[in-house]
Each structure stands twice: as C-alpha cells, then as structure tokens.
Write a structure and sequence with these properties.
Radius of gyration of chain B: 21 Å
CATH architecture of the largest domain in chain B: 3-Layer(aba) Sandwich
Number of helices of chain B: 14
Radius of gyration of chain C: 20 Å
Number of helices of chain C: 14
CATH class of chain C: Mainly Alpha
CATH superfamily of chain C: ABC transporter involved in vitamin B12 uptake, BtuC
Largest sheet of chain B: 5 strands, parallel
Strand order of the largest sheet of chain B: 3-2-1-4-5
Order of helices and strands of chain B: HEHEHEHEHEHHEEHEHEHEHHEHH
Helix content of chain B: 40-55%
Largest sheet of chain C: none
Oligomer: heterotrimer
Chains: A alpha/beta (253), B alpha/beta (273), C mainly alpha (326)
CATH topology of the largest domain in chain B: Rossmann fold
Structural class of chain C: mainly alpha
CATH architecture of chain C: Orthogonal Bundle
Number of domains of chain C: 1
Shape of chain B: globular
CATH superfamily of the largest domain in chain B: Nitrogenase molybdenum iron protein domain
C-alpha cells in the first residue's frame, strides 16, 4: 500500500455514537498511535478499519474502497490483532502463527515456509513446537503478534499489543511493530502508555468520546493543552511534556 | 361388611344360585374369545352385552353380528348397571376386576386359552353348558369337525417350509394355533422345526439360514407403522423367498380359538405355490 | 498426523471386515461371498449381503456422522462439552422422526426429512438460548432442559401413537440401535448424511480460524454467517438422516473428538476427518460388542446402551478434569 484514508468514519452501536465524523490519513512506512482515555472509541476505530465492525463513511486503501474487497482479499492486506485475543484450543505456537496465512489459501508447504520465516523474524523459533497453554504472558503476546504479521499484511491494526506486559516485553513488541513499518507497510496501534506512543510512533491520533481531538507528530499531540483536554491531567509547571514521557530504556541483547 | 349391607348381598347370592340351575338370562361377556363363542352358541335374548373388541373386524370373526348388542369396556360400574346373571371372562382378564365382581356376588366363568383344536372343542362344549344349550355346542363341534375333515382330504405333493413372522420378529412355534393350522394346511412350520415353542422372537439370521420358502404374517394393527412393523419389510426376507411376497392373513384367526380355525386352514391351503 | 489418519483408517476397515464375521450364527463368509459373486441366492449370501453388510455400513456411517458432528460443534462453540446429544440435536431428530413414523407420513423420505427438521429446530433453540459465545454452563443447562422436553415429548408421542408396538420402542429412540436394518434404510440415510458431511467438511478452515475467536476469524476473511449456516445445515442434514434410522445414539459424538484431539494437534478443522473415522470405528466396535453379547447370552441390547455405559463415566471424568486446575 501507499496510503490509507478514512473519510467521515462513523460507528453507531445500540443507538450510541461510538465514532463521529472521523478523518484519518496514513502513509506507507508510518506507524500511527491511537491514544485517548478509556471509552474514546479507539478499539472501535480499529475494528471498523479491519472491516469487522460496520461503519459509515469511506475507507480507501490506495484510493480504492475497502468495502469493495471480498473478506478474503481484505484479510490478505489488513491484519487485526485483538486485545487479549483468545486461543480456545492448546495449539502449538507454529500452528497458531500459521493461522495468519489462512486467507491465502495456499499449499501447506508454502504456509509452513512463511511461518518458519516469521517465527525467526520474531525470535520465536525456539518456541515453535510448544503448546500455547504453556507459554508466559509475554510469550503469548509475541505469538499472537507473530500470527498477525505472518500474512505479511500491508496494514497492521494492533489493539493494545503491550497491555499487561512487563517493560522488556513491551519494548520487544514495539520493536517488532516498528520493524514491520517498512516500505509499503504501515501500522495503527492503540496504546495507553504515552511513553511508548511518543517514542515509537510517527504520528499520533488523540480520541475522546468518539471524536478526534487532534492528529499530528508526537510533539504536536503530546502537549499540555491536548492532554489536559483529553485526560483531565495537569503537568507540573516548567516541564516539557515530551520530557515527561521520555523512554530511555532499551532491551539488552 | 356392616350387617345392614350384608343382607342385600346375601339376597343377591341366593337369587343367583337359583338362577344357575336354569339357563342364564342376562349374559355379559367381557373377553373377545368368550364374546365370539357366546354369539355362536347363545340365544339372542340371553346376550346383554359383548366387549367392544367383538366389533373390531380385525380382531373378531363375528364383528358384524356383534354390532347388534351393546358394547362394554369391562368397567366395574358399567357391568353392575347391566345386572348380569352370568359374566364370561378370559383366562387373563384383570384379576382385580374379577375379585371385585365375585365379592359382589356375581357369577363368573373364565374361558381358558386355546392353543390347539382339542381345546377349541372343549371350550365350545364349556360355553354351551354355561349357557344351558349343550346340544348347540355338540352341533357346532360336529360342523367344525366335518369342515376339518373335508380340508384334510386335500393332499399336497410337498410340504413347503413356511413360518409366521410378526412385528418385532415374533414367530409361532410348536403348541400354537398357527402351528396346528400350518400343519393341517400342508406346510412345514419352520419355527417348530427349529425347536421353538409358543410365541417367541426369532433372530433374523437364524430365520434366513433355515431356508424359508414362504412367510405369513397377521397384522394386528393394519394401517399403523412402527419400527417393530418395519422389520417385516426387511429386504432380506423377500430375497430369502426368491422375491415371493409375505402373505397376510387376518389376525382374527389366531387371537381366539374357535370354528374360524377352519377358515384359516382354508386360506393357508390356498396359499400353496 | 498422516500416520494417525492411516492407522485409524486401517483399524476402521479391519473392524468393518471383522464385523461381517459376527452374527447370531456362524456362517462360511467366503462361501457366502462366492455365492454372492456368482449370483447364487443362497441363504448365507443373503445373510451376508442383506443383513450383516447393511448393519455394518449403517454402524460405520452413523458413527462417522456422530463423530463428525461432535467435532464440528465442539470446534464451532470452542467447547469440549458440546455434542449433538447434549445440545438437543439427536433428541430433536428423534422427535421429528417419531412424529413422521408413527403418525402416518413415514413413507419414503418422510422420516429422514422430519428428522432433519427436528434436529435443526432443537439445535437452533439451544444455540439461541446459550448464545453464540458458547458459555459452557448456559449451554449445558439449555441442553438439559431441551433434552428433557424432547425425551418427554417422544415418550408422550409414542404412548399416543396408534401402533400397539410404539410404546416399547421408546428405548430405541432414546438410546439408539443399528440392528435389524436392511439396505433400504442405508439408502434412506445416505443422501442426507453425505450432503451434511460435505457441508461440515467445508467449514474446516473456518473452524481453525475460530480457534482465535469470532472477531479474529472474521478479520482472517472467514464469513461467519455462512459458516454458521453451513454448520447448522450440515449437522441437521447428517444427524437428522442418521437418527431417523438409528435413534439417538449417545456419547459417540462427545467422546470421539476428545479421544482424537491430540492426534489432530488440537486443530478443530483437522479433527473433523479424524473424528469421523474414529466415530465410525467406535460405533462399529460397540455394535460388534452387542452382537457378541447377543450370541453369548441371547439378549439383544441397544448399541446406545453400550456407548452410554462406556461414554458416561468418560464424560464424568471429563467434567471433573475440567473443574480441577490443569
């Protein structure tokens, strides 16, 4: 893909407006962070973009209507990573990651080949034959992310991929997402941790009560003005808001 | 029983025992088998009521004639209202009902089941005596014997292997009316040959391996369906007899022993290949 | 994995062959086969091809359908306690078949069609009550209620049926039997069983995807509406046709997927084929047991008695294991 555009996106669930008149624009190679208080409609936005939540307005992928794609064509281009997504049967790690290529309807050998590559790229080779049930929380999150990455999606939609992870695993997951956003690929990530958002994302979208308050670079969005408006929090006098959310740690290799 | 109630019961018993010496005047039958013998041997004015089964053309050989009389359902209150001086029952009539009727002082007679022609003769004689018409009984027996003798004159070159096959895989072995009728009609009853006695289920494979040439069946409830009845339509049965279909005979021939056994033998003789 | 299918296939085939040698009387099977091939209508040939062969094939087909439907339902509801018996499918099919058979429109395809309709209505009802998330407790409670209703209705209908034999057949409908059927019954159940089976096999990919939940499955391009429709239609067609002939045979659909799930590496889609094979082997083995028992004791018991005798303790063990932390 080159560009994703959403125009006047709106979602109504049970008579309630969850998203209102939302415009969005994302270039290839970029990572967009979606931030905002609880109940802002962040997950709903991702679901709408993934095509699993009916929405008003238009979603254009390189200028073409997303709605015109068949579910399978859509699934090959866009991957959605659920927040705390369930795994109902104790499959092996390799089998779960392989499910990411379901929409490709390819020979089993091709799936196996692609899966092996993805496992290597995500550092999960050693866990390939382990049962999902036996993994730690951090490993599980990585496996589910690897599943979403396995279809080589042009657009990855990740809903709080770092929730409930320790700091090291948060950094690992964010690095994987960052690596994904190369030529022709992009990601939209819902984040609660503003440090991660400021550090890893190219652009941020600040949502509150279904409305986009602002959209721009981390420096533009992470400002005393917008954070006050969105979260009703106040910064101590004389401190740069970006300094307050600085991330100065990396994972040891 | 309190003394005040005992008196009417005593009086009733006295009148009944007096009546027993002369022919009974109000006879009620509550059993299909005694119904039919009562119809054949009784004076029309003697018959007060027959069981409702006597009117069922599928069960009763005299259904048409039975319609001339009121039907009963062997209900105690209903029977008392009929004021019978003789109640005819079967060997297996509800024993609580029989005890109740006896306790009230009614005169009951029970007709034994007939599994062969000798018992049929004895039963005819028995009912004729109860009704006070022994001569009618002897006449009926003579007619039956003459009929049987005529049928016995018919000779068959071969006695083909046959067998009654009923829902749920039941068959009639030795010591049944079917067995006697089959033999008198020139058939070889396979169920008896295998060693079965009375009414018993026969396993499908055993049945087929006995090389049957003809199946007979007597539908007890024509026009209804059930898994039990579907067993009669098993494709193997038709294949075993070389495609020859099962022959249906009315169930009323076997439900009760009576002169209709001769009609059954006639039908079985006509079924010869 | 490939080996598992192959071995299971061989076991099933061997049981199928063995089953032709088991009956109430010993017969020279090879002579019977020769007679059959030379078109000699001997009694042993008829016993082989009209009694034992249909019984064997009906047991295999019914077992395969039970195993397949159980695996498909468990996969779809991602619930190892779901089975065609527990959620009312078998009872509904039996109920429909009972109406058709005993109340006079049981000729030809009437019985299987009524079974299909009954299976569909009963399963759909339980599914609607339990909700699509397949919450175990609600599902089981709804299943218990619907099953009780169906069992009582079947008993009532059989008591009211005009056929004098109906009442004693309650046990067949509630426990199931493959005895005393001919090839015509096999032909009667075959179209629905095959069509339903094919429909179910087409949900394999979707069932695999559903391992990750409904939403993720949808994001993977799975059409959930279509999958659901295929699944219900498939189960109703297959179970309806089978139960209309054999009655509601219990526990095969519950136990088989469990036994074989490890062999399928827990993949619900992969499990379908294996479970069909396993169900066929299991039910045929139970029926061989019935025949051996009959030969030894003369008593003819329902195959459903055997499957329940073996299946119920297994089911209890399963519940206990689920309750205790792994």
């Amino acid at each position: 893909m080159k560009r994703l555009e959403a125009l006047r996106l709106g979602v109504q669930i049970g008579g309630q407006e969850i998203l209102r008149e939302l415009d969005l624009r994302l270039e290839a190679g970029q990572m967009l962070g979606v931030i905002g208080p609880n109940g802002a409609g962040k997950s709903t936005l991702l679901r709408a973009l993934a095509g699993i939540q009916p929405a008003r307005g238009e979603i254009l992928l390189d200028g073409h209507e997303l709605a015109a794609l068949s579910p399978r064509q859509r699934a090959r281009r866009i991957a959605w990573l659920a927040q705390n997504g369930p795994v109902h049967w104790p499959l092996s790690v390799a089998r779960i990651v392989a499910l990411g290529r379901l929409a490709w309807h390819e020979a089993e050998a091709a799936t196996r080949q692609a899966t092996r590559e993805t496992l290597r790229e995500t550092g999960l080779e050693g866990l390939a034959d382990r049962n999902y049930d036996q993994l730690s929380g951090g490993e599980k999150a990585r496996v589910l992310l690897a599943r979403a990455l396995n279809g080589k999606p042009e657009l990855l939609l990740a809903d709080e991929p770092t929730a409930a992870l320790d700091l090291a695993h948060q950094l690992e997951v964010m690095t994987l997402l960052r690596n994904h956003c190369q030529a022709g690929r992009a990601a939209i990530v819902v984040l609660h941790d503003l440090r991660l958002a400021a550090h890893y994302c190219d652009r941020l979208l600040l949502l509150k009560q279904g409305v986009a308050l602002t959209e721009g670079s981390p420096r533009q969005v992470i400002s005393a003005h917008w954070l006050e408006l969105a979260y009703r929090i106040r910064l101590r006098e004389g401190i740069d808001p970006l300094d307050a959310f600085r991330l100065e740690w990396t994972v040891m290799t | 029983m309190p003394p005040t109630r005992r008196l009417p019961a005593l009086l009733l018993a006295l009148t009944l025992s007096a009546a027993a010496e002369t022919p009974p005047r109000r006879v009620v039958s509550i059993n299909l088998c005694s119904d039919q013998l009562l119809l054949l041997l009784g004076e029309p004015g003697q018959i007060v009521s027959l069981s409702y089964l006597a009117r069922d053309p599928n069960a009763s050989a005299l259904a048409e004639r039975a319609r001339a009389y009121p039907a009963n359902h062997a209900d105690l209150e209903e029977l008392i209202a009929m004021q019978p001086d003789l109640v005819l029952t079967g060997a297996y009539t509800d024993s609580a009902l029989r005890r109740a009727l006896r306790a009230l002082g009614y005169h009951l007679e029970a007709l034994p089941l007939a599994h062969d022609i000798a018992t049929i003769r004895a039963n005819i004689r028995r009912v004729a005596n109860w009704l006070g018409h022994p001569a009618r009984g002897e006449a009926l027996i003579q007619r039956l014997d003459a009929h049987l003798k005529r049928l016995a004159q018919k000779r068959f070159k071969r006695h083909p292997r046959a067998l009654f096959y009923q829902p749920n895989g039941y068959t009639a072995g030795a010591g049944t009316l079917q067995d006697e009728a089959l033999k008198r009609a020139g058939w070889d009853n396979l169920a008896a040959r295998i060693g079965l006695r009375g009414y018993r289920p026969i396993d499908l494979e055993t049945l087929l391996l006995a090389h049957p040439e003809q199946f007979f069946t007597s539908p007890y409830a024509p026009g209804t369906d059930s898994l039990a009845q579907r067993r009669l339509r098993h494709p193997a049965l038709r294949a075993a007899t070389g495609g020859r279909p099962m022959i249906e005979l009315p169930y009323r021939y076997w439900l009760c022993g009576g002169p209709m056994i001769a009609d059954a033998i006639t039908a079985l003789q006509q079924a010869h290949p | 994995m490939k080996h598992a299918t192959l071995i299971l296939g061989l076991v099933t085939a061997a049981l199928g062959l063995f089953s032709l040698f088991i009956g109430s009387n010993p017969i020279p099977v090879f002579q019977a086969l020769l007679d059959r091939l030379h078109d000699i209508p001997s009694a042993i040939a008829i016993v082989l091809t009209e009694v034992r062969l249909p019984r064997t094939l009906i047991a295999l087909l019914a077992g395969a359908v039970l195993g397949l439907c159980g695996a498909a339902l468990q996969g779809f509801l991602h619930n190892p306690l779901a089975s065609p018996g527990l959620i009312g499918t078998s009872g509904g099919a039996a109920f429909g078949a009972v109406i058709a058979l005993y109340f006079g429109f049981g000729s030809g395809l009437g019985v299987p069609l009524a079974g299909i309709a009954g299976a569909l209505v009963a399963t759909w009802t339980v599914y609607r009550i339990a909700g699509r998330d397949g919450d175990t407790l609600t599902l089981i409670l709804a299943g218990v209620a619907i099953n009780a209703l169906l069992t009582a209705s079947i008993s009532l209908l059989l008591s009211l049926a005009p056929s004098p034999y109906a009442v004693q057949e309650i046990v067949v409908w509630l426990l199931g039997s493959v005895a005393n059927h001919g090839s015509d019954d096999l032909w009667l159940m075959l179209p629905g069983a095959l069509t339903g089976g094919l429909l179910l096999m087409r949900t394999r990919r979707a069932l695999d995807a559903l391992t990750l939940g409904e939403e993720t499955a949808a994001s993977l391009g799975v059409d959930l509406m279509r999958t659901r429709a295929q699944l219900f239609a498939g189960i109703a067609l297959a179970m309806g046709s089978v139960v209309a002939v054999t009655g509601a045979i219990g526990f095969v659909g519950l136990v088989t997927p469990h036994l074989l799930r490890p062999l399928a590496a827990h993949r619900p889609g992969r499990l379908l084929g294996l479970s069909a094979l396993g169900g066929a082997a299991l039910l045929l083995a139970a029926d061989i047991g019935v025949r051996l028992l009959q030969r030894a004791t003369g008593a003819s018991i329902q195959v459903g008695v055997i499957t329940a005798l073996l299946g119920a303790p297994f089911f209890l063990w399963l519940i206990l294991r689920q309750r205790s932390p792994a």
